[in-house]
From TrEMBL:
Family: Belongs to the TonB-dependent receptor family.
SUPFAM superfamilies: Porins
Keyword Cell wall biogenesis/degradation: no
Name of the featured protein: TonB-dependent receptor
Location of the TonB-dependent receptor-like beta-barrel domain: 254-709
Length: 739
């Protein structure tokens, strides 16, 4: 047994945890050469399944894949579709010790992260427009994932689609995702059995364990099972912030000659104590500098409890060699209970007021889809035909109580003061304040039908995609205090898609698209202060966004690159929604226009040297705002540029040693529509190292990463008109053994 002596070195708990986990795993492993000896193999989902099912293969280096799932279009190679997309692999997740989906998306120069509205949820800005956690899909299904924080421990791929995607996947449950969407692929058992145990610890003492087991069995390995169990607990890099998380996930699948079945069950529970969240602007004339990166201006009595249970089933059947039918269904139950505190700035010096609220939130969602993918030939023209149906049923329940404004407690973001919690308003005997049984506040039913055809000319060197999706949205809102319905609308709309791909040379694809996004329209308020709104409670038609994009993609076998230019028009965007004081009518006008250029590089151009980076330049403009007050201004929370530069290098002469580094740089952005409040550009640097070796003939990897090496203090985002601060420096050690 290896001997662990941590007394003479710092971070003794860290070394003790790592060494003991290795010792335990090594002793538990069967002797080499035994019948049940296992080997480490690259994880591959349905490696022998027909093309409609198999995930696209990885690029050299294993960090990204050559394509991903594009909704009704199925799994596609990036070179064959007229859209921009990125697909990040499970290998990248392990190498970077990425714990959440947000950690993975930091690798994409088109994406930045922001805090949710006064809670712990992660919001992703894709091409300058927000994507909420509610609107991330799971194996193609919307509405069944946790909405605040999503663990990566049971994920095989994190796929990013750039641009509006109302045709590809249908309208999202809450209407975000106009700038792009994210789809998560669950892990599946590979033909090579897997037994993997990992442990990690951060510099602040947060310890985690993760067990990943995969096995195929039966004739021709037709049946598969993949089980993931993980937990992490301890202090984060932010002062007085503590997190605890647990995950249990099971993925089962059957891989027949024509029939393929899969099922997933996931249970995730998280508790966050003293969680630092967003800062509201209040009465300020310029944005104060960010506090020290580890400063926590959230009071110690605040907490968040998140619990999600979800499951889904999927079936695919090959009718013949050219046609495949598929169907999937899933459901989710979420329960959130929070003692929240929001900090609102009082002046330019960092003085602020801390509020208090108690909020219970529950969701019961169901989702289903089905379709048919096929290919055929008409003379010299090839066709890839797709039919799809989808439906989402969501039900939200809420109960909440706030403190009176006069009871908010004073604090300062540079020198936080935690006093007694502000006194909450007296709960009334109404459904809206029954935290054990929250009342229904909203129901949404969305259903759609889609059809598309990709026509191939000149031996598929020219591909033209034409399609449309007809969508119906039924949205009902309820008063949380009385339970009575306050709004109900039923609207339908059709969103088309046009795309073209031309391959002038073997390794090059030129592409262009016109595609639309869709979000449910707003409902005008009944009152604005003391003013009764004429026509209040009226539901407005869905808002249609449009994108035009063109670019070039290069696939050189071991590495690739993409260059794209886009223009997105989003109506309303919250900048022109107001009550006209003269007419007492609700006004909804204007649009936000985002223009950008994206360059991405990925792969392994030289053996042992992996690159992953890109740059996005963005110009944003408001038009048609109320009375023209903000016409020509930049939109809130859209940086002028975003730069990523990542490298992972196998050190020559040192077998098994790899070094990595990453730089994130983000340009300035505005926090208000009038462009009076601005955030400066910021930089973040991450470094890492891995050592892979053999212990008792078992593969072992020991890794170390340091995020935000300089412990830089910066405001990460102004999305939503409030401030999200970047994370502080955190060092992590990890050890993984395949036994």
């Amino acid at each position: 047994m290896p001997i662990c002596n941590a007394r003479a070195v710092p971070f003794r708990p860290t070394l003790l945890a790592l060494c003991c986990s290795l010792s335990f795993a090594a002793q538990a492993a069967p002797p080499a050469g035994a019948d049940n000896a296992l080997e480490l193999g690259a994880t591959s989902i349905n490696a022998e399944a027909p093309a409609p099912t198999a995930l696209p293969p990885e690029f050299a280096g294993g960090q990204v894949a050559r394509g991903g799932q594009l909704g009704v279009l199925g799994n596609q190679d990036i070179m064959d579709v007229p859209f921009s997309m990125s697909s990040y692999t499970e290998k990248l997740i392990r190498d970077q010790q990425a714990e959440t989906v947000g950690d993975v998306l930091l690798n994409d120069s088109s994406v930045r992260q922001a805090s949710g509205y006064a809670n712990q949820s992660q919001t992703f800005m894709i091409r300058g427009l927000p994507l909420n956690g509610d609107d991330i899909s799971y194996n193609g299904l919307y509405g069944i994932l946790p909405r605040q924080v999503i663990s990566t421990d049971a994920l095989e791929r994190v796929e990013v689609f750039k641009g509006p995607n109302a045709f590809i996947n249908g309208v999202t449950p809450t209407g975000s995702g106009i700038g792009g969407g994210v789809n998560l692929q669950p892990k599946r058992a590979d033909d090579v059995p897997l037994r993997r145990f990992s442990t990690d610890i951060s510099s602040d003492g947060r310890i985690g364990e993760h067990l990943d087991i995969g096995q195929r069995f039966g004739e021709d390995n037709r049946f598969g099972a993949r089980v993931n169990l993980s937990q992490r607990e301890g202090d984060t890099g932010i002062d007085d912030e503590n997190q605890r998380s647990k995950l249990f996930a099971v993925g089962l699948d059957y891989r027949g000659d024509a029939l393929r079945l899969s099922g997933d069950f996931v249970y995730q529970k998280q508790r966050i104590n003293g969680g630092r969240n967003s800062v509201f602007l209040g009465k300020i004339t310029h944005v104060p500098d960010a506090p020290s990166a580890d400063t926590n201006y959230a009071p110690s009595w605040s907490s968040t409890n998140l619990e999600d249970t979800l499951g889904m089933l999927r079936a695919e059947y090959d009718l013949n060699e050219n046609w495949t039918a598929y169907a999937a269904a899933g459901a989710k139950h979420s329960r959130e209970m929070g003692r929240y505190s929001s900090v609102t700035l009082s002046d330019n010096l960092g003085n602020a007021l801390a509020s208090r609220s108690t909020i219970a939130h529950e969701e019961n969602n169901r989702s289903a889809m089905g379709g048919l993918n096929g290919k055929f030939q008409t003379g010299a023209i090839s066709h890839r035909l797709n039919f799809g149906l989808a439906g989402i049923w969501t039900e939200a329940r809420n109960a909440y109580v706030f403190n009176a404004a006069a009871t908010s407690t004073p604090t300062n973001i540079y020198n936080p003061v935690t006093g007694a919690p502000p006194t909450l308003n007296s709960p009334r005997n109404t459904p809206g304040t029954d935290f054990s049984d929250p009342t229904i506040t909203g129901k949404t039913f969305v259903r759609s039908a889609a059809v598309s055809d990709t026509l191939g000319f000149f031996d598929d060197r020219l591909l033209v995609t034409l399609g449309a999706r007809r969508q119906q949205m039924v949205v009902q809102s309820y008063n949380y205090m009385s339970g009575s319905r306050t709004a109900n609308y039923d609207e339908s709309i059709t969103t088309p898609v046009y795309g073209i791909v031309f391959k002038p040379w073997e390794h090059v694809s030129l592409y262009a698209n016109r595609i639309e996004g869709l979000a449910q329209g707003p409902t005008s308020p009944l009152k604005s202060g003391v003013l009764t709104v004429i026509g209040g409670g009226q539901a407005y038609a869905p808002a249609r966004s449009k994108q035009i994009e063109a670019g070039v993609k290069v696939d050189m076998g071991t590495y690739g690159a993409t260059l794209g230019v886009y223009r997105i028009e989003q109506p309303g965007a919250g900048y022109a929604e107001a009550i006209d004081a003269t007419t007492a009518r609700y006004v909804r006008e204007g649009q936000q226009i985002n223009k950008g250029v994206e360059l991405n590089v990925f792969g392994e151009p030289v053996s042992g040297l992996r690159l992953l980076g890109g740059v996005t330049l963005m110009k944003t403009e408001l038009k048609g705002t109320l009375n023209g007050a903000n016409d020509g201004n930049r939109a809130i929370g859209v940086p002028s540029f975003q730069l990523n530069a990542g490298v992972d290098w196998d050190v020559p002469g040192l077998q098994g040693v790899s070094l990595s580094g990453r730089m994130l740089r983000t340009g300035g952005q505005y926090a208000d529509a009038a462009n009076n409040l601005s955030l400066p550009a910021w930089n973040r640097f991450d470094v890492g190292a891995r050592y892979t070796f053999t212990l008792d003939e078992r593969d072992v990897t020991v890794g170390a990463t340091v995020e935000n090496v300089a412990n830089a203090k910066y405001w990460e985002s102004a999305q939503g008109g409030f401030l999200s601060q970047g994370d502080p420096r955190v060092a992590k050690l990890s050890a993984t053994i395949d036994f």
